[in-house]
Amino acid sequence: MIFAYIRVSTDDQTVKNQKDMIERAGYRVDKWLADEGVSGTIDWTKREINVAIEEADEGDTIIVAELSRLGRSLKQILEIVELCQKKKVNIIMIREGIQTNNDSPVNKLLLSILGSLAEMERNLISQRTKDALALKRKNGVVLGRPVGRTTPVEKMKLYPKRKQIIAWREDGISYSEIARRLKVNRITVSKFVHTLELKESV
Which residues are named in the active-site annotation (predicted)? Predict the structure, then answer.
């Protein structure tokens, strides 16, 4: 069985590019799993990649568009790779051209190097962000969203599905289950419902 895992970090991004990359590579995916608006820094056991790993049996394959989709730290990436190797589940990283069922020393070294680079990239981005924010504070720029201002509910990602979401909530469906059905983050659902309720109460 072939699983495909795709992840984007913000609600403004789309999983389409990753899905297209996997399909162009010629793989016939049996099950797609996606995390939308979910950072790679979140523990992998709380992401959809964990579902793929739990359901995968010996000889199955998990495909990702690139290494960074597995996680943003060397620790997380290696945990996933090592667990899959123990289960004899192959991971294919299309952009890097890596398959973890290849036990050659070169392949193992490449995995380690790429994991280290992914972590280093994350640290560099984080540091650049901190430096930029520090400079803005020094120049007197007020950071953050102005108090009381929220995104208009009509412009929120889930607005076109509001009737279905309202119906599910009236039936007692939890935010987590709605998020699973819509393939979005639970926080995205709860924030949308809260904003919608505020609008309707005005």
Answer: 9
